[in-house]
Amino acid sequence: MNVKHILVAGILASSSAWAADEAVENPITEDGMVKVEWQDPDSFRDIRSSGDIQSRFEQRTFEQMTKSLNKEASKILKPDQKLEMVVTDLDLAGDVRPTFGATTNDLRVVKDIYPPRITFSYKILQGDQVVMAGDEKLTDMNFMYSINKMNNKPYRYENELLSSWLKKTVKPNL
């Protein structure tokens, strides 16, 4: 009798945990002058969590990257301009590897053979007018050697990739 109750409780707990991991279809993050739509994150090349609930990991990743992008965009864009992006693919630096029980979480191994990549379309608006627009497919094959080694901020390689794009592509054309 107790075994039945334990099994039922286990089934209910696992189904509620599964329901909590359901992600928003196309999440949108917005911070200051930057708005990002993350289109179909389930199809992204690599946005795997190494130890958190996947939907929470994705939301935290998207929010952090949008916040960092806004910080850089505010240095380049005019106060009345806005950057809108639709990200269609994201590949975080490194690769998630299983630990086969050595730890409770998997590990993200960052090596130069796993560079950060991001594919997106963008437009820069001034009021309702589109000032600049385009499609980008960014990769930094030299990411391990081009960033400050003392920087231990989350998503530093991806944020540097986007910051570099703003400085090299957007700034000269505005």
Structure description:
By secondary structure, the chain is an alpha+beta fold. It has one domain (24-173). Helices cover 34% and strands 27% of the residues. The chain has helices at 2-20, 54-76, 156-173; strands at 28-31, 34-38, 81-91, 95-97, 107-109, 117-126, 129-139. The strands form two sheets. It has a five-stranded mixed beta sheet. It has a two-stranded antiparallel sheet with strand order 4-5. A hairpin with a 2-residue loop joins strand 1 and strand 2 (34-38). Helix 2 runs parallel beside helix 3 (156-173). Residues 5-21 have low confidence and may be disordered. This is DUF3016 domain-containing protein. Keywords: Signal. It comes from Shewanella pealeana (strain ATCC 700345 / ANG-SQ1). Residues 1-19 form the signal peptide. InterPro entries: DUF3016.
